[in-house]
Amino acid sequence: MSVADVIDHLVGLEPGGHLDMIRRARAVARDNTQASYAALFAPDTEADMTKAERHALASFVAGVHRDPSVASFYASSAPGLADTLALEIERATSAGPYGGFPAGPLSVEDTHGPTYKVGDPQRPILGPRLSAAFEHAHMLVFHPRDSSPAWLQSLLDAGWSTTGIVTLSQLVAFLSFQVRVVHGLRVMQGVSA
Amino acid sequence: MTDHVISPGAHAKPVVFTQKELAWLPWLEPLPAAELTDRHMAGLVDASRAKSPYFMLLARDPDILGARTRTDKDIFYNVAAGLPRPERELSAAATSRYNGCIYCASVHARFASHFSKRTQDVQHLLDDGVGVDIGERWNAIVAAAVALSATPITFGTEHVDRLRAAGLDDLSIVDAINSTAFFNWANRLMLSLGEPDAPG
């Protein structure tokens, strides 16, 4: 979907209104948040990550955040995988952040939660690259402090390049940012009305 | 062959949250300096960032790095009105403490202390976590960061009311939202592409 400013669109921000003026007080951040979206979803090259992979991964990540408007915005870009995505989003949905700390004084704060694996029937539909990307994305969204080199090895083994891993990590992390800006602004809009 | 995982080997891994300066060791090969093009330099924004393994790894996709860096700088360094700089850093430090990014927390706790001169309160947050009592205004900012960082997100009108009661105007609250949201981006990159090192 092509919109002038994705966050305004997802929040339903009224041009010239109170919150719009506040957003425009940080115009460089506003413009570059949109430029970040464009860099991820309208890239100059698909050599390391195709647009179809970007849209499918974004739809998965937006889905597990359980924000209906953000989820449907990204789902509309990956219609071919709608049934598979719906299934895997349902299977992957969790509550975070959880995970372990380096062994030591912080170990008392370790909290455990699920490690998500794509369902066997869905794996051939998604293929090895997207399956590995979804599993990695679930870790990034819900238990990022469980990261280790082994997680990156799994992506390399599934056919991702180093550059592709950078791009997919940026995409998941950007969505973690975007969904929070949208949520926060929407709450502000509710109390300003 | 650049597509392989780097194991940092034996080094001093920090096991507590700290305000000391840490290094960061990548798990994937940063872009070699010899391969830097104008486009990569544009993505780095500041030429000095070519010395950082973190930014040189992210420079492999220069367009998103450039847009991300410009977003970052405006959220934190544009101090025309809104939330005072130390409290933007507090939002970043609290988010990093909650998500568990020891490296990110070290940088932004240090900045929060530097700009606020409240080093002990910042250390209290690092030592005891996000439930700490460091005065109502900072408690409200930390609580908002936690609620916005949880997945699913639990930030709601009660957090806005508390921030307003603590004296934040709406631009300041949006600055707090942006600071926390941005560290949900940063923490995930720093945590998943390398690890902190405690030199010396």
What's the CATH class label of chain A?
Mainly Alpha
CATH topology of chain A: the name is AhpD-like
Helical content of chain B stands at: 55-70%
Indicate the CATH topology of the domain at 82-191 in chain B. Answer: AhpD-like
SSE series of chain B? EHHHHHHHHHE
**Helix/sheet category of chain B:** mainly alpha
CATH level-1 class of the domain at 82-191 in chain B = Mainly Alpha
Protein described:
Chain A has one domain (6-95, 118-192): AhpD-like (Up-down Bundle). Helix content of chain A is 63%, strand content 0%. With 193 residues, chain A is mainly alpha-helical. Chain A has helices spanning 6-11, 18-24, 27-41, 51-64, 68-75, 82-92, 123-142, 149-157, 162-192. Chain A has nine helices and no strands. Chain B has nine helices and two strands; from the N terminus they run βαααααααααβ. Chain B has a two-stranded antiparallel ribbon with strand order 1-2. In chain B, helix 7 packs across helix 9. Chain B has a domain at 82-191: AhpD-like, CATH 1.20.1290. By secondary structure, chain B is mostly helical. In chain B, 58% of the residues lie in helices and 4% in strands. Chain B has helices at residues 38-44, 53-58, 62-77, 85-99, 102-116, 119-128, 136-149, 157-165, 170-193, and strands spanning 23-26, 194-197. Chain B starts with 22 loop residues before the first strand and ends with a strand.
Give the tags:
heterodimer, A: 193 residues, mainly alpha, AhpD-like, 9 helices, globular, B: 200 residues, two-stranded antiparallel sheet, 2 strands
Report a brief summary of the structure.
Chain A is an all-alpha fold. Helices cover 63% and strands 0% of the residues of chain A. The two termini of chain A are 28 Å apart.
SSE blueprint:
The complex is a heterodimer of chains A (193) and B (200).
Chain A: H1 6-11, H2 18-24, H3 27-41, H4 51-64, H5 68-75, H6 82-92, H7 123-142, H8 149-157, H9 162-192
Helix pairs in contact in A: 3-9, 4-5, 4-6, 4-7, 4-9, 7-8, 7-9
Chain B: E1 23-26, H1 38-44, H2 53-58, H3 62-77, H4 85-99, H5 102-116, H6 119-128, H7 136-149, H8 157-165, H9 170-193, E2 194-197
Antiparallel strand pairs in B: 1-2
